[in-house]
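Researcher: Next sequence.
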Amino acid sequence: QHGILVAATESAWSFDADRAEQEPVVLGPEAAAQARVATLSAAERELLGRASAMGPVFWSGGVVALGRMGADPWDPTMVFAPDPSIEETKRLLLSLQERGFIADAQSTILDGTDRAWSFADATVRALIEASVDARLMGERRCFSAQWLQARLGGSPTSQQMEAVATLFAEGGDERRAALTYLAAGDLSTRRRRHERSRALYLHGVRLLDKDDALLKIDACHKLGDTATRLGRAREALAHFGEMLRV
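Model: Next structure:
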């Protein structure tokens, strides 16, 4: 665009140092991110769109699973055969890592059971996320929550359950989000982490619809009990009052 890189042949470029000195290219963070996103292929953009649905951290297996959402098996007659999309996804992820779009991430949600990644630039992630249809993004987040929940096994931690609940909430499934937040609160209560339990219960109660009367009564009771344990008598009375009102 600025004439600093000049096509020398069909496959090579030359760098015009004099032109570079005369026309400094100044790009803000968003403009730089837009320029980087413009270099992505359609397949790479689609893959990163799936990745962005999982949140700040995403996993290789989750990206593969999201690619199957709503689709039939690649070969119904060989449903247990290796899926070629797995290797293609891994190849694209490694290519994106080499070019600085994504990086290895440390995550305690899935301890080493699947390779974790994160976006190297939050602005790029925001642009990718904004380019995905809002309804599709919601469906992908709810699907991601179920994929993650299935990977946690029978003894999840409150932190893991909170991650699932957050995905459900961002995907628009408030009831499942509420139930998962409340379950995470129960796990924290068992470990006597009452301050954390209170925060999780609050998330759950706020998301419950008035039609879920029995669930809300139980949740308000747990919230009041937790506030009592923390010495917040006035707050506890408010939660018990809400329980009676419901």
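Model: The chain has a mean pLDDT of 91. The radius of gyration is 24 Å.
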